[in-house]
Write a sequence for this structure.
C-alpha cells in the first residue's frame, strides 16, 4: 500500500549539508500496524512528513497505492502529538469533527450520523459541546482520533501521539487505538521512541539508527497475540531483544 | 455534617455577600474618581490659581449650558464621525493587505521595507501635507485617522497571519482542506486575537490623533473647541473639552471590548492553550 524505495532526505547545502535519511526502504501493506522505532533525532518525524506529503524526499521514491506521492493527500491523515495545536481551539469537539467533514466535502445530510458515530467511538459523546481547552490531554487525543477517522482515511500516520500523556492514560489510549484499528481496518504507521509502546502495538517494528544518515537497520515481525502484556515471556523477550539492538547500535 | 466540618470559607463568604462583594470593582472605581474630584476641587480652590485650573464645580457649571444648547454634542458627534470613518476604513484596508502580506511572500518582500519606513510618520506629522492635499474639510481628518489606524492594524494582522501554527494548518490540509479553506477557516481565525489587539491599540491612537488634527486644521470637533477656547483664554471650556475626551475614550474602549467579547470570544479565549 505504501512503498518507499531508497528514500533519502538532505537538509541544507555545502557546509550546512545534513543527511537526515539515507536510503530508507519500507513496504507497508494494507491494514498493517507498523511502528517506526528509534531514539530522538533519528529522522522518524522527517520520514513521516515525507509519507504525509508535507515534505518531499531528496532522492528515492514514495508510492501510495501504486501512485507517486505528491503533496499532502487526504487518504493519509497525520495525527500529531500536540492535539492542542492540531485541533481548532475555537471550535467545540463536535464542530472540530464537522470541520473535517466539511473540508472533505462529505454531503451535509450525513454529518450528524457520522459525528455521533465517531464521538461515541472515542467516548466523547457527552463532551461534544466542550472546547479543546476544556478537555484533558487524553480527551484531546481521542478527539483528534475521532476527527481523523471521520474522514475515513486509508492510512493514519501517527507521530509519537501519546508521548506527552501520563503512563495510565497512554495505556488506555493504546487499548483505544487497537480497538479502533481492529474495527476500521485502517493502515497505521506509528512513530515512537518507546520500546514498550512498539512491542504493545505493532505488527512489525522497524528500528531506525541515529542520524546523520539514518536508515532502517532491522525489521522485526512481532507475531504475538493481542492484547499483549509486557510481563508475558514472549513480549518480555522481544522487549529485551529490541533494547539490545538499539543499544548495541550506537 | 457537624458544625466543625463546615467549610471554613462559608461563614466568611456569607457575612460578606453584600453589595460590597458583588460590586467591589464598580465601587472602587467610583470611589477613586470621587476622591480625585474632591482633591481637584480642594487644590484649585485653595492652592492653585482657579483661572488656570478651574475647580470641577465651575467646570460643570460651564458644561451645563454647552450640554443644553447641544454645542458639546455637535463637537463630539463630528469628532466621532471622523474617528469612525477613518478607523473603520483604515482597519478594513489594513486587514485585507495584512493577510496578503502575511501569506504571500513576494508581496511581503516587496512592501515590507516601504511599510517599515512609512509607519514612523505619525498622523500628526502628516497634518501639514494632508491640509494641502485635502483642505480643512472632512477628508483630511478621515485621511489622518486612516493613516494612524492603518499601520498599527497592518503590522498586527501580518504578525498574526504569519504565526498561525503550522501544525494546525497541516492537520487541516491532510483532512482535505484546500489552500483557500486553510486560509479562511484556519489562518484568519488564528490571527483574530492579533487583529483585535491591533484594532484596540489603533482606536486609542485615533482618539489621540484626532485632537491635533482638529486643533491645526478644522472648524469643528473637540480639538477645534480646545483651540478656540485657548485663543479666547476660556480655561473653563478647555477643561470641559478635556473631560469629554477622557470620558469618550474610556467609553469607546469598553464598548469595543464588549463587542469583541460578544462576537469573537471563542477566537480570543483559547490563547492559553497554544
Amino acid at each position: 500500500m505504501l512503498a518507499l524505495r531508497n528514500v533519502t532526505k538532505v537538509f541544507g547545502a555545502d557546509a550546512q549539508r545534513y543527511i537526515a535519511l539515507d536510503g530508507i526502504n519500507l513496504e507497508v501493506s494494507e491494514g498493517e500496524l507498523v511502528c517506526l522505532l528509534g531514539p530522538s533525532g533519528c529522522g522518524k518525524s522527517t520520514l513521516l512528513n515525507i509519507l504525509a506529503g508535507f515534505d518531499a524526499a531528496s532522492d528515492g521514491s514514495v508510492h501510495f497505492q501504486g501512485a507517486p506521492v505528491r503533496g499532502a493527500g487526504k487518504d493519509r491523515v497525520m495525527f500529531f502529538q500536540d492535539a492542542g495545536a492540531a485541533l481548532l481551539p475555537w471550535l467545540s469537539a463536535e464542530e472540530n469533527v464537522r470541520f473535517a467533514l466539511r473540508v472533505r466535502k462529505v454531503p451535509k445530510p450525513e454529518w450528524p450520523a457520522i459525528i455521533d458515530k465517531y464521538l461515541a467511538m472515542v467516548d466523547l459523546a457527552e463532551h461534544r459541546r466542550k472546547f479543546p481547552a476544556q478537555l484533558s490531554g487524553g480527551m484531546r487525543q481521542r478527539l483528534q482520533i475521532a476527527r481523523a477517522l471521520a474522514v475515513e482515511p486509508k492510512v493514519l500516520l501517527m507521530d509519537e501521539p501519546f508521548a506527552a500523556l501520563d503512563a495510565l492514560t497512554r495505556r488506555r489510549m493504546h487499548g483505544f487505538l487497537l480497538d479502533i484499528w481492529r474495527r476500521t481496518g485502517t493502515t497505521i504507521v506509528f512513530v515512537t521512541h518507546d520500546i514498550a509502546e512498539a512491542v504493545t502495538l505493532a505488527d512489525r517494528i522497524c528500528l531506525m539508527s541515529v542520524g546523520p544518515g539514518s536508515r532502517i537497520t532491522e525489521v522485526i515481525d512481532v507475531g504475538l497475540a493481542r492484547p499483549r502484556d509486557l510481563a508475558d515471556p514472549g513480549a518480555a523477550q522481544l522487549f529485551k531483544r529490541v533494547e539490545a539492538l538499539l543499544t548495541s547500535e550506537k | 455534617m457537624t458544625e466543625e466540618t463546615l467549610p471554613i470559607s462559608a461563614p466568611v463568604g456569607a457575612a460578606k455577600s453584600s453589595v460590597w462583594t458583588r460590586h467591589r470593582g464598580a465601587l472602587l472605581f467610583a470611589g477613586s474618581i470621587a476622591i480625585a474630584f474632591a482633591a481637584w476641587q480642594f487644590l484649585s480652590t485653595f492652592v492653585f490659581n482657579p483661572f488656570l485650573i478651574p475647580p470641577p464645580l465651575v467646570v460643570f457649571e460651564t458644561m451645563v449650558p454647552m450640554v443644553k444648547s447641544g454645542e458639546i454634542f455637535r463637537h463630539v458627534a463630528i469628532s466621532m464621525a471622523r474617528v469612525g470613518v477613518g478607523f473603520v476604513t483604515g482597519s478594513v484596508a489594513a486587514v485585507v493587505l495584512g493577510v496578503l502580506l502575511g501569506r504571500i511572500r513576494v508581496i511581503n518582500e516587496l512592501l515590507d521595507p516601504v511599510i517599515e519606513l512609512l509607519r514612523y510618520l505619525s498622523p500628526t506629522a502628516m497634518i501639514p501635507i494632508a491640509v494641502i492635499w485635502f483642505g480643512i474639510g472632512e477628508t483630511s481628518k478621515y485621511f489622518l485617522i486612516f493613516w494612524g489606524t492603518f499601520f498599527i492594524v497592518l503590522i498586527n494582522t501580518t504578525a498574526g497571519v504569519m504565526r498561525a501554527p503550522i501544525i494546525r494548518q497541516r492537520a487541516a490540509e491532510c483532512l482535505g482542506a484546500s489552500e483557500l479553506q486553510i486560509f479562511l477557516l484556519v489562518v484568519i481565525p488564528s490571527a483574530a486575537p492579533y487583529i483585535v489587539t491591533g484594532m484596540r491599540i489603533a482606536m486609542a491612537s485615533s482618539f489621540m490623533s484626532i485632537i491635533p488634527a482638529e486643533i491645526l486644521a478644522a472648524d469643528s470637533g473637540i480639538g477645534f473647541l480646545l483651540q478656540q477656547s485657548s485663543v479666547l483664554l476660556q480655561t473653563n471650556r478647555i477643561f470641559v473639552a478635556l473631560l469629554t475626551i477622557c470620558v469618550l475614550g474610556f467609553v469607546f474602549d469598553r464598548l469595543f471590548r464588549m463587542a469583541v467579547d460578544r462576537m469573537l470570544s471563542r477566537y480570543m479565549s483559547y490563547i492559553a492553550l497554544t
